[in-house]
Amino acid sequence: VEAVHLIADGKAPRIPQPKEGATYEGIQKKENAEISWDQPAAALHNWIRGHDKVPGAWTTINGQVVTFYGSSLLDASVPAGQELTIKGASRPGLVTKNGLVVFGNDGKMVLVRNLQFEDGKMIPASKYFTADETTALELTEEEKKMAEDIR
C-alpha cells in the first residue's frame, strides 16, 4: 500500500537500470554461437539446440562456415557413413543416411539433421556430399512436344 501511495504522489524512488545485463541481445550474436568441440555430446546437443534457429550454432568445414540445425542425442552403435573433417573436432563427423553424426569428447554422438551454408542455402545434412551435384532434366517425347507448343 505504501508503494502505491508513493507512486500516486510522484515520490517513488527511480533507480536507473544498469546497461550490463539489461538485454539478451549480446547472446544472440552469430560470433558468440561458434561450437566448442571440447565438450561432451550432451553439451554439444544443448548448444546446437539452444541456438536453433537464431543465431544458429556454427563451425568451420572445409574453410566454410556451416550452421547446424536440428540436433538430437544418438544412443546407438556408430553408424556407417562418409567421414567429414570438422575444424576443432577431435574426431571427424560422419555423413550418414539420417544426417551428420558428430562426436563429443566423451565419445558419445549427436545427430544433426540440417546444415546451412554461408550463402544461405540449407540442405539436409545427409546430402552434404551430394549437394553440389546437379542432374539434367530429361523430358519425355510428350513433354518435349508440349514445351515446343508452349514456345
TrEMBL record:
Listed InterPro entries: Formyl_trans_C, Formyl_trans_C_sf, Formyl_transferase-like_C_sf
Domain Formyl transferase C-terminal as annotated: residue spans: 29-130
Molecular function terms from GO: catalytic activity
UniProt-recorded name of the protein: AL1L2 dehydrogenase
Biological source species: Machaerirhynchus nigripectus
Gene field: Aldh1l2_0
